[in-house]
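Blinded run. Sample ID left blank on purpose so nobody reads anything into the name before looking at the predicted structure. Input follows.
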Amino acid sequence: MKQIHSLLKMMAVGAVSSSAMAFAGVPLRFCVGPEGSTYHKAYKLMEAELLNAGFDVEPFETSGPLSTLQFLDKDHCDVGFTRADSMYFSATLSSTAMVISNNTLINLDDGTSDRERNPKKNVMSNEIFREYAQLVCNRALPADDIKDLKALAQKQMQDNDDLLRKINKLQNEEISLQASLRKDPTSQSLKTKVADVRMKIASLTASVAEVEKKTVKILFLEESNRDANQTSMNDPTEAHELWRNLIAQDGAYARIPTEVINANQPMFEGFDRKQIMMQSVFNNPNGCYLSIDRVGKGTYLSDRIDSEVRFSKHVKLIELNDWDFNDMSVLGLKVYEFVDLSGSKALANLRSTRPAGVWGTGFFKGTSSVETLTVKSMLVAKPSWYRQVQKNPFLVRAVSAAILKVKHSPDFTDPVLKN
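Blinded prediction complete.
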């Protein structure tokens, strides 16, 4: 019945080639990312093209690019979107994946296709679209870039450690005084010293609480729709994964605490993901929201942040400009690249030229540049699927057409690199 349905579908869109007939009724399992994500939107653009070609596309939702590689490895899907940094940090999984461009298939192992043996051509050059790291902080936080956050976290940790050492020393002193007091329970001098030590401990404990209140934090949104077998440690969300990757390049960032925001709180009723995180930063004077997403039409940064007036004077986009972050490379090409978001004409309405009282010093922290990281997103496939494609090039042509549909879509036009 399923095959009949697929055949009728192909007949409805035009003549059916013998190549298309060979794939009629055969599902193409597609890892699509979480609903509402960039990957899911790209998949929806490809889906229509693939269905029209005669394939039964079967979407499989994952939590992000690393999850997609894991599910490809476990044979849960045939193709899916991932990022260059995910490929880099998942060498075992990535070595069994193929990267698809719009004109050929490329094996990650040696960076070349069977029909084009060019050692300089490699997987990192086959992007479908770009994603940009975006670090939004409360404007009260004295930080203009991520290096400031690292310095703040380091100082806060040092202050906290100093206070705890003093508390520990006083606690040991109290133990000694209590021992002396047991020998001489009537000594008023010892009782006064014990009381004095306890007051000092209470004062220092209050100081520790104050330091903790001022501790800078990176905020992440809890994934309520995650599979029961998935955990944030083993299968991170896109933002979690990005943060882990940055720490892998500079371990000092591990000193910055993280906090998971529960999206099911009553205060967030009716909010979407971006609004929840912006509200969380708004509510937390020491909080920063890390995300990675497209920049352009249909994205929060481009289309909607300008209308979120309640956030205008309280949040800022700060720089991800630590040059340790672009040390890693694959086949000689950088995984992360730096780009200035403030140079985008499409984002000019968020710069510091906004009228006073509307955006204050501007969402772009009020300086002339906002440098951040960009990473390439690509389509990957299972080797077994790749071998099937080699036997029949029809699927290559169909997928190529679907990829071009994404690349040429106005929703995926990149306003940053376009300038």
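Unblinding after everyone has recorded impressions. DSSP finds 13 helices and 14 strands in the chain.
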